[in-house]
Amino acid sequence: MLQISWTGTDGSSWDLISGPIALRADGIQGLGMPTTADTVRATGLTHGQTFQSWRLQPRPFFMPLIFQDASRYDVQGLQRSFWRSMEVGKYGTLAVTDSAGYRRSLQLRFVDDVNLSYSVDPYAPVLGEKAFGVNLIADNPFWQGDTESITFGLGPGGTATFFGNGSSATPFYIVKSAGGTAATLSNFGDLPAYVTYTIAAPMTSFDLTVDGHHVTGAIELVDDETLTIETSPQSQIAYKDDGSRMTRYLTAADFAPVPDSGEPVPIGIDVVGTGSVTVSFRPQYMRAF
């Protein structure tokens, strides 16, 4: 049996299987395959059509809900809290965990309450047959798995220098790829996944690779600074933790995804510095389970 929870736009958490407001056993829409919008070509000279490309449409999601033994709860407070978790124009998260413990989540925003009707006493205990529903929409139609990541610690702490501790020379390190060719990531999702690099100071330059594709730069990081590089086509950007944009300082930006083959893909880290580099991504899936 699936475990399903809702984390609202206000941060509140709702157990939609055994909580006071729960999903009905049947009628949940949006857990399965998405809807595609295909681009095709047809001419008057041939029969049928020729497929060219596809994209996914936004994913509608319907929650059929019911109060669990509403007589035990403060129905007025419960309803107010629940609807406050669905602020218009903001995203909540629906998470689905299967019997093996694997979790996938979907970002959803409120659409409507299916024109829910009320009695003159809207906070009277709701009987079992007085079920209700909520329509939501996932602008990003993909279900996402938990983050997969690998972190490279790139050198010793303290004040050791390239010439050894105690030297009066300028402290610096030259550190090759931590983990070397043994460092790999595997993507078991349904689609190729683009990584995010998070680089922590101290660092002066880097050469980062995924499956032989390089992202390089000479960007100095000092003290507690971090640099984040997002490689997804939806947002290809480099920025420091203070928000300053650093994309123009990248000297190579051959952004490439981790293929969805499930096979190990080599990750390379070659830097000047002694901070750390984390390479992470979230697998994307067509279905919730």
Low-confidence stretches: 157-182
The tally of strands reads 21
- Quaternary structure type: single chain
The count of domains is: 2
Strand content: 35-45%
* Mean of all residue-level pLDDT scores: 87
| N-to-C CA distance | 11 Å
Can you name the CATH architecture of the largest domain? Sandwich
Structural summary, described in words:
The chain has one helix at 75-84; strands at residues 3-7, 13-15, 21-23, 36-41, 50-56, 59-67, 91-97, 103-112, 132-138, 143-145, 148-153, 184-185, 196-200, 203-210, 213-217, 226-230, 237-240, 250-253, 265-273, 276-281, 284-285. The protein is mainly beta and 289 residues long. The protein folds into 2 domains: 3-141, Beta Barrel (Elongation Factor Tu (Ef-tu), domain 3); 145-285, Jelly Rolls. β16 and β17 form a beta hairpin. It starts with a strand and ends with a strand. Mean pLDDT is 87; it is low at 157-182.
Sum up the structure in keywords:
globular; Jelly Rolls; Elongation Factor Tu (Ef-tu), domain 3; 21 strands; 1 helix; 289 residues; mainly beta; five-stranded antiparallel sheet
How would you concisely characterize the structure shown here?
This protein is mainly beta and 289 residues long. Helix content is 3%, strand content 40%.
